[in-house]
Amino acid sequence: MRQRGFAAPAPPPPMDSQRAAAVRAIAERHAGSRGPLLPILHAVVEELGHVAEEDVATIADVLNLSRADVHGVVTFYHDFRRTPPVAHRVELCRAEACQAVGAQAVFDAVTQRYAGDEDVEIGQVFCFGNCALGPSGTIDGRLRGRLTAELVDAELEASR
Amino acid sequence: MTACVDDREHEPAVIRMGNDIARHLEYLPPETAADQIAAHIERFWEPRMSEELLVHADRNDTTMHPLLLAAARRLRPPPA
Amino acid sequence: MTEQTASILIEPDYGTPRVEGEPTAHVTIDGLEIDVAPGTSVMRAAKEAGVDIPKLCATDRLDAFGSCRMCLVEVDGVRGTPASCTTPCTDGMVVHTDSDDVKALRRNVMEMYLSDHPADCAGCARGDCEIQDLAHRVGAAEVRYGLDGANHLHDATDATNPYFAYDPSACIVCSRCVRACNEIQGTFALTVEGRGFDSRITPGGTDFMSSECVSCGACVQACPTSSLTEKSVIELGMPSRTVITTCAYCGVGCSFKAEVQGSGDATRVVRMVPWKDGAANEGHSCVKGRFAYGYASHRDRQLHPMVRDTIDDPWQVVSWEEAITRIATGFRAIQDTYGVGSIGGIASSRCTDEEVYVVQKMVRAAFNNNNIDTCARVCHSPTGYGLNQTFGTSAGTQDFASVDHTDVMLLIGANPTDAHPVFASRMKRRLRAGARIIVADPRRIDLVRSPHVEASHHLPVRPGTNVAFINAMAHTIVTEGLHDEAFLRDRCEDVEAYLSFIARPENSPEETEAETGVPAADLREAARLYAAGPNSAIYYGLGVTEHSQGSTMVMGLANLAMLTGNIGREGVGVNPLRGQNNVQGSCDMGSFPHEFPGYRHVGIDEVRGIYESLWGVTIPAQPGLRIPNMFDSAVAGSFRGLFVHGEDIVQSDPNTQHVEAALRAMDLVVVHDLFLNETSRFATVFLPGTSFLEKDGTFINAERRINRVRPIMPSKVGKDEWQVVCEIATAMGYPMSYANAAEIMDEIAATTPTFAGVSFARLDAEGSMQWPVNDAAPHGTPTMHVEHFVRGRGRLMPTVYVPTTEATTRRFPLVLTTGRILTQYNVGAQTRRTDNSRWHPADVLEIHPSDAELRGIHTGDIVELSSRVGTTSLPALVSDRMPPGVVYTTFHHPITGANVVTTENSDWATNCPEYKVTAVQVRVANAEAARAHQEADAVTLGSGS
């Protein structure tokens, strides 16, 4: 706790010092390169699963940015997830080409079907570059075209 | 000689302050140092403070730094 | 120049910052022709030509951003409609700001803003929201999107900061607040989170109070809607009138627009807004000047004179006449018994020059002695001595703007982000632009490393070893041949003696390393960096002066600047960061026992003659008593009466027991102040004073800048302070009176050569001026010692390191050093009576983890801090900002009693107390002491705002 003339209103949440050390190591690994913040955030998500609240302060400290600076970047990109990953992630394209072939309906159906399912997360992407085979999406990282809600179900079954 | 640190709050203020000036001008040749200490006291000290110091000097007070004593002599020669 | 307006002063906003250069770009805007410097934005050129292009995200204090899309224009030969804020002028450009297409576009953009703006926007209702103004201007009568689409109208307000609220429902994400926090303040506490429609401004994902925000108010000032608004405006409504005045906190001396309602006794401050044309602050402020003015109307404010027979009796309210008579007869009686020199006065470093001048005049003309001193004694008196010896002047050499030309800063014994925040923001801006900084400080202060700023070197000089350190720096420069021989030859004297002294091996970085704790290799690199410049500037504070070798160290800094030729132009110099709002002025006004106004010794017959003939009295040619001497003499029985003006010596001076013993020994202590402070516990006469909101006069800041203080309301106590002092003198038999404060300044100007050209009228015309102001420099003097030093040649003084007698021992193995914090100010008399106490409700003892572990101390524990003169207790904070062996605290709260432990040690030349080095021991307080501390703490906090 640094005293900047500001008394902390409540004690901060206990820091997982092992995680903090891991994040610091990742940050220091990239700190010397140009534009290190994005590579660091990618690496944190890749190696530790998500960007936790306390990671922001660690990364800010290594790069000598403010916490607000890092927070702004983290929240700008959906891929820098803030919550630990769940078992399965489905990402559906909602851009124009896929919309033209019914992507909205697929999205609505899938979202409704898995609402409340703790193991499945539905996200949105704007273009995989797979437009000729829309509606496109990824299921646990596997890109598929001509998706329907049923096909999404099948892919998820295959993953489990 | 300069009193040790524990005595500083008990020694007379004029002795403590005068000795401080002496120690900080000690690097000069003794005559120059004594001149400068005397000049400093004349320039910055209230007359009653100087007088109190001179009374100590008249008595050859051994707690006075030798350069301070020398400076005091320049402000008032020792009694015959 | 309007200093007092009958209405609100709205300064013109040109949209983008001024660009330097010759006006060689000829542009035509809506048929109007104007010449501007190339690179000036079209928006600014238009404004200068008289065309006001609508804007929301642009303001001339920030670089152009181009996000709001309101300022679109058409330019001949350019496709589309570029934003005028991000389009630079080129020679021959022809611009159309008001074609039908542009007007239609603006309406459309406005419609989008209105579709997500509260219909019941409080700011619009107040007339405080630019959305409403613009909507009228561009004529967006209907919102074709309707008002029921996706919007942010239900976003919750963040009112956690005591002074302002953030209402996201009115926010247009123009990001002016984010950019103000980045570019002006340099804290980077705000950001835009999310993207697209979900973009929202946030202080880093938390609320304002928990964030990195330092509450400077720049974002509130920048916000074009009412999303960020002062709570006082929400509560009181919009102001109706502006008075331009000067802040009464620190030595930066920010100029403010006091925006008020009402008039006369019913005047109420709605808010203090920094004045863009303020030369010291250029439109910026800190939490104290911006928001913490509430103390002036706090319930603790005393409004009536009071007397009592003994210090154990309760106070009785009396008339002014009775109080003044008691003072006059009391002081005279003491003099009759104990002699002329048995009474004296302490002038205030917080009051105006005119008030201080009158106090020292009272002492010299009515008391008939030179027993006048001021708080500069305990802070920058070594600056006075040291710079006088070396340069011939007792003040800094530059102005604040000089830092914009600095390449290397050497910051020593100062913590500007806490103590001079507005100047620190300027330093940070320059550092982000590529300048380097060397920080010499035992603690890892913010300027060592904080977002976007990193020092090239942090040299953790052990407290008490400054002179050894600066000698090693100079040694490096000289022995490596990095000194400026031409400068030394042409501009300095006593050069050879100094060079051979500094080259001695005992002054080398290697031989001083063990003493200073600064690794020799680091020191050498830092010295080389400073010598390389090309423009190197020294900024220093009380970590240099409040030492037993304070004066020697100041001379050491002057030597360093002379050695490298860093004097006499912009970007360089020796810059003392003066603490108080008018400590510079107080010194300038001769509130010294040995000097008249203008730093002229009382022994100089011609100078004394000026005052003797003007005042019609005889003035002693010998110096009077300094504050510490007054205390010593009081205890000895020869000094028995004291007039204390705007100072709380019991809380701020070292060795509290000694100060209290001295005051108890006196027969008459008079306190003239806003509140019943610690010193008033020993007084038998109390005179109520006026706050800066009621004063008419001048303050002088660390730049030697004379700034006007203008009254927002008449005196709440029936008299001006200078009037009261005149009446005391008159009652003592020396008639003294002035028609107004301006007359006092006229007398100062007539008798003090460095102020010869100064008057209220000149100051109103110029805004402010830096002394010397005379025929040679009728508009003032930003940079000093340009052609030659004030004393002719600069004098190089050998600075032999003499260790302080305050050595650590087994009994007291740690060193205590003290300092300040952003939100509280000095003894806290003002800031403790505002909401600033939410941030710093108590002084804490910062202690390094290894020292803490040894003693079983954890953050939050109440610890006992003891020295050879006293003991106190306070909460601990374990922090690795401290080096091992050094502990640190502040002195803002009387209950802390930090000065109970500081000693009688002082600077050899000026008696400036050695606050920065006290040998102490720290241990966990026993349960009883801890409980007592907590109880006393609760009582103090309870009596706060």
TrEMBL record, chain B:
Pfam families reported for this sequence: FdsD (PF11390)
Protein name: Uncharacterized protein
Organism phylogeny: Bacteria, Bacillati, Actinomycetota, Actinomycetes, Micrococcales
TrEMBL record, chain C:
Cofactor(s) it depends on: [4Fe-4S] cluster; [2Fe-2S] cluster
Domain named 2Fe-2S ferredoxin-type: residues: 23-101
Domain named 4Fe-4S Mo/W bis-MGD-type: residues: 240-300
Entry-linked CDD domains: fer2, MopB_CT_Fdh-Nap-like, MopB_Formate-Dh-H
Domain 4Fe-4S His(Cys)3-ligated-type: 101-139
A Pfam short name: Molybdopterin
Record's GO cellular component terms: membrane
Record PROSITE patterns: 2FE2S_FER_2, 4FE4S_FER_1, 4FE4S_FER_2, 4FE4S_HC3, 4FE4S_MOW_BIS_MGD, MOLYBDOPTERIN_PROK_3
Classification via SUPFAM superfamilies: 2Fe-2S ferredoxin-like, 4Fe-4S ferredoxins, ADC-like, Formate dehydrogenase/DMSO reductase, domains 1-3
Assigned keywords, A-Z: 2Fe-2S, 4Fe-4S, Iron, Iron-sulfur, Membrane, Metal-binding, NAD, Oxidoreductase, Repeat, Translocase
Predominant location: membrane
Entry's transmembrane regions: none
Localization per Swiss-Prot or TrEMBL: Membrane
GO molecular function: 2 iron, 2 sulfur cluster binding; 4 iron, 4 sulfur cluster binding; formate dehydrogenase (NAD+) activity; metal ion binding; molybdopterin cofactor binding; NADH dehydrogenase activity
UniProt similarity note: Belongs to the complex I 75 kDa subunit family.
Family matches, as NCBIfam families: Fdh-alpha
Protein name: Formate dehydrogenase
Organism lineage: Bacteria, Bacillati, Actinomycetota, Actinomycetes, Micrococcales
